Amino acid sequence: MTGSVTILGSGSALPTFQNSPSGQMLHLNDKSFLIDCGEGVQLTMRQMGLKTARLYSVFISHLHGDHCFGLIGLISTLSMMKRTQPLHVYAHKDLQKLLHPLIDYHCGDMMSFEVVFHPISPRKQAVIFEDRNVTVETIPLKHKVPTCGFLFTEKGQRRYAYISDTMYSPKIIPQIEGVDLLYHESTYTDEHEARCKATTHSTARQAAMIARDAQVKNLLIGHFSARVDDHRQFLHEALEVFPDTRLAEERKTFEF
């Protein structure tokens, strides 16, 4: 068996004709995990025919809107579809305070399932989920608000690392060393490096440097800024550093 990740959104904060905000569906060991949930994620899922029956958990890297604004819509839709299985949400504790009033207001007595919130500390490395086959641990990142990535490990086999919004941070390298597939945000190209520092993001080249130094097997880059029209520029700059790089193009599935 192989693991796979489907890209539901790979843009940054400003949606474009090319990209929606962040969202990925990770398929591992017959389970599906949703990683971040920007606007449009549920629409892309439906258009691609992705099933939600095996969607067990949602992992939100941080509370900037382009990573979580789509979650209330998804919850509402799942309730209309009469889901009964609980949905587990792992995120900063403030997400529960933000979402509970919306769930109560928009779903109310029609809510067909329980949303179980699991507060996490994004600034700490910790195992936040574990079953017989998979563990998930947080990867502390450097961003304007508390933010973490996630390391998914199938016990004894595949590993997938998701690095959300962050400035260049070599401190994460030991934790992701040798993973089968690394997704690393690559908001800007070299010409916008100064803006990267100001907004606490990474360039494609910096993402590739992390992949190279961590000796990962393959790299996906995404979270593309609307300032860069031609995504081939991101790929070109990353490939100069790490040859096994691909663009996290929306509606594509990558196996590992």
Can you walk me through this structure?
With 256 residues, this protein is an alpha/beta fold. It has one domain: Ribonuclease Z/Hydroxyacylglutathione hydrolase-like (Metallo-beta-lactamase, Chain A, 4-Layer Sandwich). 23% of the residues lie in helices and 29% in strands. It contains seven helices and 14 strands.
Write the layout of secondary structure elements.
Elements: E1 4-9, E2 23-28, E3 31-37, H1 41-47, E4 55-59, H2 71-80, E5 87-92, H3 94-106, E6 115-120, E7 127-130, E8 134-140, E9 148-154, E10 159-163, H4 173-176, E11 181-185, H5 193-199, H6 204-214, E12 219-222, H7 232-239, E13 245-247, E14 253-255
Parallel strand pairs: 3-4, 4-5, 5-6, 10-11, 11-12, 12-13
Antiparallel strand pairs: 1-2, 1-14, 2-3, 7-8, 8-9, 9-10
Helix pairs in contact: 6-7
